[in-house]
Design a protein that fits this description.
By secondary structure, the chain is α+β, with helices and mostly antiparallel strands. It has seven helices and 24 strands.
Length: 507
């Protein structure tokens, strides 16, 4: 796609010629590092309906492919490589589907490009049409031209099988690269984990790039997540993405301190400490490390130290290093098995342990029913809790002319699929001596079905109130409301959603 950029091609061929003739030339300014603020290997995904702004000028304007200049340079360079005994392969790299709209005449201009590739083949250049073979979608791109981690793995596999393996077949110890695993932190987070809550951090900070629709957030050292139920013997490369609340890091900052815990089936364990490296431009953290597994094990991550108020864990990518494979006898029957939470964290910060740092008195992930208007009462985190350190207390303010002081939380869209067509139970522990509690769950399809909690007896003791709901297959939203409809305080703690057996009844 850059064949009209003579300076790019000339610069690349010049450096490769020098490498072939005299060996590698190290130029410090050309080495990208995190310290220089260059991009991390992207994990973000472009939206399926992404559209390029074709009104802006781009490198695709006035696309041409003349037969002299850069075209002939490619042909000559291929001949030069052949004389030197070097295999030259030209790979057609795809861009994101929406990016083709940046051509002045997308169909005509791209066909001109493809015709140019055919002409190069006729001239004796080996061309591999990776774009046509892989047909990558927006799911595999971080922006219009750069693939994300997922696209990168697919390209690595493709080039290994199409280019590297055929050329160096006598040196290959495997025919295919090992499978890679992608594990989202929220998918391994158990509902009753007291150290973490889930949150969509896609705009915190605004430049952060995430692979998962939800992240696991902790503010207390000591939290643990299990990522692998079974991890086979081998030497692995692990990429863990995350972030914190800041976009810059001071020179005396130490970074988050985390550690892997690998526990073998015979009970022996080993911990390996590591720190997040950070991208100073994006405010996104990445750690890449290798870890050796001698026998079949489980793998957990511990948060040992925080640098700042919180640590955000996004997604882990894991792949075995083929050059250091261990224990062939054991790996023949061993299969890596990522950990899956037995009961996902449908309700985030369900026990109100984490305050909202931007809204005094409120628990994070719960928003006032009135949204943009002034709340109809007061919300406060108090120490009189059913479990843990804090519960939420709500009181209606009659002066607001409202009917209730309520907090609301929506079940994240990514988790709605888990409960569609199933019977669920939503419960909360509630306490009040004189106040009136109000709670409901809205099952929202093309219309809204409201399911209310039963009334609270004013005993001054903690009581568990619950409702059972048959969730529609086409549910779009499932907001949960809790609050007080009088000026007397109502305390709520431990809101829970769990899946029951399938049932045709609803309550």
């Amino acid at each position: 796609m850059f064949l009209n950029r003579t300076s790019y091609l000339y610069r690349i061929s010049r450096h490769v010629r020098a490498y072939i003739q005299t060996g590698p030339i190290i130029e410090d300014e050309m080495i990208p590092t995190l310290a220089h603020g260059t991009n991390l290997p992207a994990v973000r995904t472009m939206p399926d309906d992404m559209k390029a702004d074709s009104t802006k000028k781009s490198i695709y304007d006035r696309f041409t492919m003349p037969k002299d200049g850069e075209f002939q340079e490619l042909v000559d360079f291929a001949k030069f490589c052949k004389v030197k005994g070097v295999e030259f392969v030209l790979v057609n790299q795809q861009v994101a589907p929406s990016t083709y709209a940046l051509f002045d005449n997308p169909d005509k201009d791209y066909q001109t490009y493809l015709n140019g590739l055919e002409d190069l083949k006729t001239a004796g250049v080996r061309v591999i049409d990776m774009a046509q073979d892989l047909k990558l979608t927006h799911y595999h791109f971080g922006d219009g031209e750069h693939v994300n981690r997922r696209g990168g793995f697919l390209i690595a596999d493709y080039l290994f099988e199409k280019v590297v393996h055929p050329i160096f077949s006598e040196k290959m110890i495997v025919d295919h690269l090992p499978q890679w695993s992608e594990i989202s932190s929220f998918s391994v987070l158990e509902a009753d984990n007291p150290y973490f809550y889930t949150q969509d951090r896609s705009k915190v900070p605004p430049t952060a790039l995430y692979a998962s629709p939800l992240q696991a957030v902790t503010r207390d050292p000591g939290g643990t997540l299990t990522f692998f139920k079974t991890l086979c013997p081998g030497n692995y490369v692990i990429d863990l993405y995350g972030a914190d609340e800041r976009t810059t890091r001071s020179s005396d900052s130490k970074g988050h301190q985390l550690s892997w815990e690998v526990r073998s089936i015979d009970g022996k364990s080993e911990t390996v400490p590591f720190e997040f490296s950070r991208n100073l431009v994006q405010g996104t953290a990445l750690t890449q490390s290798t870890i050796t597994i001698q026998t079949t094990s489980t793998m957990k991550i511990h948060v040992d130290r925080l640098d700042g108020s919180e640590c955000v864990l996004d997604t882990m990518f894991v792949r075995e290093r083929v050059s250091e494979r261990l224990g062939d006898a054991e790996t023949n029957y061993c299969h890596n098995e990522p950990y899956g939470a037995s009961e996902p964290m449908f309700i985030s910060n369900s026990s109100f342990e984490f305050p909202d740092l931007s809204k005094e008195g409120y628990p994070v992930q719960w928003y006032p029913y009135t949204r943009e208007r002034a709340p109809w009462g007061t919300v406060e985190l108090v120490s009189d809790a059913y479990t843990g350190k804090t519960a939420v207390q709500m009181k209606l303010d009659p002066a607001t002319k409202g009917w209730g002081c309520l907090l609301v939380q929506d079940i994240p869209p990514i988790l709605l699929d888990e409960i569609k067509g199933k019977t669920i139970e939503v419960s909360a522990w509630v306490k009040s001596r004189e106040g009136r509690f109000f709670g409901k769950v809205d099952v929202m399809t093309s219309s809204t079905r409201e399911v209310r909690f039963p009334s609270l007896s004013k005993s001054g003791e903690w009581q568990k109130l619950k409702v059972q709901i048959q969730v529609d297959d086409d549910v779009r939203r499932l907001p949960i409301h809790i609050g007080a409809i009088t000026a007397k305080p109502v305390l709520v703690d431990d809101v829970e959603l769990k899946i029951l057996e399938k049932s045709s009844t609803s309550q």
